[in-house]
Design a protein that fits this description.
The structure is a homodimer.
Chain A: H1 2-16, H2 22-33, E1 38-39, H3 40-46, H4 55-67, E2 71-75, E3 81-85, E4 93-99, E5 105-108, E6 124-135, H5 137-145
Parallel strand pairs in A: 4-6
Antiparallel strand pairs in A: 1-3, 2-3, 4-5
Helix pairs in contact in A: 1-2, 2-4
Chain A binds a DNA duplex through helix 4.
DNA sequence: AAGTCACGTGCAACTATGTTGCGTTAAATG
DNA sequence: CATTTAACGCAACATAGTTGCACGTGACTT
């Protein structure tokens, strides 16, 4: 399974025509394995430590992946960017759920956004994203079952 | 005109039941006068300097305004939060345009998001936002008419 | 297989937005 | 006017992300 994802990542990068490096392959593999959007921090934690990939390199790889369309960058309410492997978000008009408490972002595959939206004169639309804000299952549960002062910024 | 907005701001804050302070009135007046969402930086620049309102106070006022519903906070792609006076964004399902180059955010009053979107089990939706990403009129224009290396982070 | 060269990487220092603690000021109330 | 307490100003801090530069390495040529 893990091997497969690494291979898949390598193939995707090779197909893009750019250089195939360990950092790129490993980061993309991490994104492919994830079932939700990952922050830079998440990616770092999930990377095999023995590889010794630098913090900055992870930033640059994530940037490159989103730049060349292999990943999708999502700006969170919490000022943290999260990334999905492009597979999960291929459409030009898709939907996300964002938890307002822990920041978790998941793709909503069943929903889709209107593809045509009227914009002011001169504006050039590229992409339409439908964002549903609220509480994820974990946060909604701990919220109701326990305290009125929730531990903000939990990260599960 | 300016006087009117200040008065309107004062009335809105008074009606909220909280303390009416100069900082709150002035910041809300600035938001009411704006025709697009403003960042903290934008607000500071537009505030009458003679008032001597502190940086941190502006942050706290913006936070308070969005907390009590008098303003609406929008997380930008560029890690900058922008704020609209609530008037402009009253609906629970509304739409924004975000420029991917300069970060400008404007409300799209003509468009609206679907109010009902299917979410995973246990998730609790609060709000739905439709975000159109692309280039604003200014950026789209300078992009086509001039250089291939656009001055990123322009702020107009 | 060795050589070349540009692209990618590691490291350190830096930037910018936003936050916190704490003593002081000033709005609201009587 | 006196009292109370929320809001303010200041300084120091926190954190996500960026930049400059020297060095290493992937891909391509010979």
């Amino acid at each position: 399974m893990a091997k497969t994802m690494t291979d898949a990542a390598e193939a995707m990068i090779r197909e893009s025509g750019a250089r195939v490096t360990r950092a790129r392959v490993e980061v993309l593999a991490v994104l492919l394995k994830a079932e939700r959007a990952l922050s830079h921090h998440d990616v770092e934690r999930r990377l095999n430590r023995s590889l010794g990939v630098d913090r900055v390199t992870v930033y640059r790889v994530l940037d490159w992946l989103s730049g060349c369309g292999l990943a999708h960058k999502i700006a969170g309410e919490d000022r943290i960017s999260r990334y999905n492997a492009a597979e999960h978000a291929h459409s030009r008009a898709h939907a996300h759920f964002q938890c307002g408490r822990c920041g978790t972002v998941v793709c909503l595959d069943d929903a889709d956004a209107p593809t045509e939206v009227p914009v002011p004169t001169g504006f050039v639309p590229h992409e339409v994203v439908l964002t549903v804000k609220g509480l994820c299952a974990t946060c909604a549960h701990t919220r109701t079952s326990s305290s009125r002062h929730p531990p903000a910024r939990a990260r599960h």
